[in-house]
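Tip: read the tokens left to right.
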């Protein structure tokens, strides 16, 4: 017997329709590439996303064709989120921090037909345009009078000229909720980039779960600033969850420095902000240097790479802001776990609480996870056993775009497909997962594993350390030994021996790194993560002391 409830496909257009009907005056504030602050509302974004839909129809792009963006976080990007996907085309968010060659490869692989770009990316667009013959439409996200006279781009048009003359009326089409809605490429360490192709259904389910109290805890009373870019995994789904709950959104545009972010946080009375640790490092540095405080922020979601304890401590204890440590990946839309306490943990002593909050957290409903050994046997949830972390759920990848990148799933004895995340983790009896490493970064010394994240976190707790990366170096006896590569904070000093002494009593003696290498900069990837492959290449002539 079937249930007798209305069957409505879960579509992205329903989010913006809801936001317009129920939160029309809710504010959207953006710092623009031009430098000024722009103010709009959910109602206006909804109207303009329908104009975008009409403008796309006028380009005669077919259902499912890819429309790319090369843009910072801002209201026009938001309009494209709804306008493109709402019509059944696929929004392809391009990462502007990639090398032009790689970008051109991705544009061609995705068969992008149109690219909408912020004017600050014009030189990048000019560098790739000749290599991307499939792109028929170049749309600059600016007013008509801001278009350069001689861009060299055939048919270049301004976004405002393209869409603002269109009708505000548009009937969003009904379609299969499993239709593709957006896509994001992820660059593996080997091989070509691969794309995760999200669907309307996966996006809506993810939006629901992202708003839950033990996830990002979003409501109509919130003001949310996603520093996490809209060009990487849809800014962790925040634009969609925000439309569902009708919260105010504040977009930082291109200005990610501590001063600019702080100005927006305070000026717009932001209650929650989300970003990667490297961005928060800049914010905290600015606040500490200028003795600033937060007046409205209650919490911050930190993810993308491990959040160092020193950062959790600074937010919690110095500034009274709760840190929600979150973990996920491009292939997971991205939300997998968020760290919030359970009832029984509320009475823990502060240092024991911090130990829990350091973990990547509990699975949000919709995501199932397990850890397995090399033969695929499930390992116990005892907080000690560590193994490969596998996940499954309705917003987790089933196959890569065009099937290229291999079958991403590993099948268990019941025939269920699990996605191996490439992370190594423990899970404790309360279900809190903790990443110890990327599997490729694990350091094996004398048959025992050393967590590079543990080694990095200790270094980061030293007042003179701005950033630390732990890598394994070949050793004739122990196979590998860890060293820690350190970038110092400007104007501070710490010697190799002082830093090594700082490790004593914090981890087992054999886990203490053999050496410290000071560098001016640690290479960061396009999404702000440390690039250990590049770092290892830079250290190719390095020899461990005494070897
Ligand atoms: P990406 O697909 O580029 O977003 O990268 C996903 C990877 O980032 C994960 O598989 C993890 O290795 C890493 N990552 C994300 N969040 C965290 C976190 N909170 N702690 C440690 N690593 C993380």
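Filled-in amino acids:
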């Amino acid at each position: 017997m079937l249930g007798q409830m209305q069957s409505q496909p879960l579509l992205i257009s329903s989010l913006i329709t809801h936001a317009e009907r129920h939160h029309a005056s809710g504010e959207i504030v953006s710092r623009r590439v031009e430098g000024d602050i722009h103010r709009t509302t959910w109602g206006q974004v909804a109207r303009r996303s329908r104009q975008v839909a009409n403008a796309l129809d006028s380009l005669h792009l077919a259902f499912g064709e890819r429309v790319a963006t090369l843009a910072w976080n801002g209201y026009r990007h938001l309009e494209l989120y709804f306008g493109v996907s709402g019509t059944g085309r696929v929004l392809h968010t391009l990462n502007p921090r990639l090398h032009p060659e790689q970008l051109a490869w991705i544009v061609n692989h995705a068969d992008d037909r149109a690219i909408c770009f912020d004017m600050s990316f014009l030189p990048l667009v000019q560098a790739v345009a000749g290599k991307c013959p499939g792109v028929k439409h170049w749309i600059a996200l600016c007013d008509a009078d801001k278009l350069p006279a001689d861009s060299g781009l055939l048919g270049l048009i301004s976004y405002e000229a393209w869409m603002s003359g269109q009708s505000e009326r548009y009937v969003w089409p009904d379609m299969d909720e499993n239709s593709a809605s957006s896509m994001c490429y992820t660059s593996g360490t080997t091989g070509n980039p691969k794309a995760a192709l999200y669907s309307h259904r996966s996006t809506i389910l993810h939006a629901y779960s992202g708003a839950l109290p033990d996830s990002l805890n979003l409501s109509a009373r919130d003001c949310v600033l996603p520093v996490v870019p809209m060009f990487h995994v849809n800014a962790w789904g925040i634009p969609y969850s925000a439309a569902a709950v009708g919260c105010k959104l504040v977009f930082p545009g291109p200005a990610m420095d501590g001063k600019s972010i702080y100005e927006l946080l305070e000026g717009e009375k932001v209650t929650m902000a989300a970003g990667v640790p490297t961005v928060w490092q800049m914010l905290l540095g600015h606040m500490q240097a200028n003795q600033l405080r937060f007046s409205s922020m209650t919490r911050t979601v930190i993810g993308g790479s491990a959040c160092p304890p020193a950062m959790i401590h600074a937010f919690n204890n110095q500034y009274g802001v709760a840190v929600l440590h979150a973990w996920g990946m491009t292939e997971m839309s991205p939300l997998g776990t968020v760290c919030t306490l359970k009832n029984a943990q509320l009475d823990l002593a502060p240092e024991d609480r911090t130990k829990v909050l350091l973990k990547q957290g509990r699975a949000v409903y919709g995501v199932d996870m397990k850890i397995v050994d090399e033969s695929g046997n499930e390992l116990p949830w005892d907080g000690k056993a560590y193994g490969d972390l596998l996940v499954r759920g309705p917003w987790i990848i089933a196959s890569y775009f065009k099937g290229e990148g291999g079958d991403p799933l590993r099948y268990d004895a019941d025939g269920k497909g699990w996605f191996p995340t490439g992370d190594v983790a423990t899970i404790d009896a309360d279900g809190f997962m903790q990443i110890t490493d990327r599997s490729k970064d694990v350091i094996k010394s004398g048959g025992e594993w050393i967590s590079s994240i543990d080694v990095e976190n200790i270094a980061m707790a030293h007042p003179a350390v701005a950033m630390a990366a732990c890598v394994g170096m070949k050793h004739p006896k122990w196979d590998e030994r860890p060293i820690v590569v350190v970038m110092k904070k400007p104007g501070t000093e710490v010697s190799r021996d002082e830093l090594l002494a700082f490790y004593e009593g914090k981890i087992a003696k054999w886990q203490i790194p053999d050496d410290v290498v000071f560098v001016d900069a640690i290479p960061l990837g396009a999404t702000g993560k440390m690039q250990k492959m590049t770092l290892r290449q830079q250290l190719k002539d390095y020899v461990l002391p005494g070897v």
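DSSP finds 16 helices and 26 strands in the chain. The CA atoms of residues 4 and 13 lie 24 Å apart.
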